[in-house]
Amino acid sequence: FMNAEKNKSLTGKKVMLTAGPTYEAIDPVRFVGNYSSGKMGFALAEELAERGAQVELIAGPVHLTAHHPLINRIDVTNAQEMFEACMESFPHCQAAIMSAAVSDYRPEHPSELKIKRSGDHFSLNLVPNPDIAMEMGRMKHAGQVLAGFALETNNEAANAAKKLVAKNLDFIVLNSLAVPGAGFMADTNQVSIIDRENKKEDFPLKSKAEVAKDIVDYLEAVLKKRET
Ligand code: CTP
Ligand code: CA
């Protein structure tokens, strides 16, 4: 029988994606988090699924809906939950794109009760969260492709290249906050992709849906090279 899915370039591939921020509880009503909207990650999920990939979308708290039936969405709240979901999913995947803005720290002792205002100075003790991308880089086997994002405000290319090596990524998507119209909340983004040979490819400012196409094209090329 003929099936429309059959001719798509990523049919038969399973790809893990992390997206959105993580929220780290301070108490039942407050958290430590960041401004990530998850739009770039969800655009990637739609693009991957559109090309026939089975997508494991591990999403932090976002106000977005995934539409494509090939997207299996797993909702998490904090970095520890995201880490556990990734540990479970990544071994079954041929590729992973780590686009989540994971909180680097979490409150050491979240309060079970709402913390009362006292009028005094108040400080939060934060402890480091697991580096999920780095753990995936350790787990990765020869056939798997692992990609990350780097959000930088200064020394962009050098910092991104360092992360690529430290986390054992195959390529890293550099997201510049210096470019107007790029970054967290925007519907547009301007990225560069840096590979293991330190080759840098710059893409123009585009909608996140168009940027997702560029990133998935790049991923496909890397996957193809692996197979030959
Ligand atoms: N990342 C992750 N888990 C973390 C922190 C980051 O998986 N706890 C991933 C991000 O999803 C991204 C890459 O690592 O793909 C780089 O994230 P970024 O925050 O830019 O880098 P960090 O290594 O956290 O360094 P810093 O925030 O100090 O720049
Ligand atoms: Ca970080």
pLDDT averaged residue by residue: 94
From the coordinates shown, what is the CATH architecture?
Answer: 3-Layer(aba) Sandwich
What ranges have pLDDT less than 50 throughout 5 or more consecutive residues? none
Measured on Cα atoms, how large is the radius of gyration?
Answer: 18 Å
The total of beta strands comes to: 14
> What are the distinct ligands in this entry?
cytidine-5'-triphosphate, calcium ion
User: How much helix is in the residues?
Assistant: 25-40%
**Which structural category do the helix and sheet elements fall into?**
alpha/beta
Q: CATH top level?
A: Alpha Beta
The separation of the N and C termini measures 29 Å
Quick description:
The chain is of the alpha/beta class and 228 residues long.
Can you describe what's shown?
With 228 residues, this protein is of the alpha/beta class. It has a single domain (10-103, 127-227), classed as 3-Layer(aba) Sandwich (Rossmann fold), CATH 3.40.50. It has helices at residues 39-50, 79-89, 132-139, 156-166, 208-227; strands at 14-19, 24-27, 30-32, 54-59, 71-75, 95-98, 105-107, 126-128, 145-152, 171-176, 188-189, 191-195, 200-202, 206-207. It has an eight-stranded mixed β-sheet with strand order 5-4-1-6-9-10-12-13, sandwiched between helices. Strands 2-3 form a two-stranded antiparallel ribbon. Strand 9, helix 4 and strand 10 (171-176) form a beta-alpha-beta unit. The protein is globular. The two termini are 29 Å apart. Cytidine-5'-triphosphate (CTP) is lined by residues 18, 79, 98, 100, 102, 104, 129, 131-133, 148-151, 163. One of its GO terms (biological process) is pantothenate catabolic process. Keywords: Decarboxylase, Flavoprotein, FMN, Ligase, Lyase, Magnesium, Metal-binding, Multifunctional enzyme. This is Coenzyme A biosynthesis bifunctional protein CoaBC. Pathway: Cofactor biosynthesis; coenzyme A biosynthesis; CoA from (R)-pantothenate: step 2/5; Cofactor biosynthesis; coenzyme A biosynthesis; CoA from (R)-pantothenate: step 3/5. Residues 10-220 form the DNA/pantothenate metabolism flavoprotein C-terminal domain.
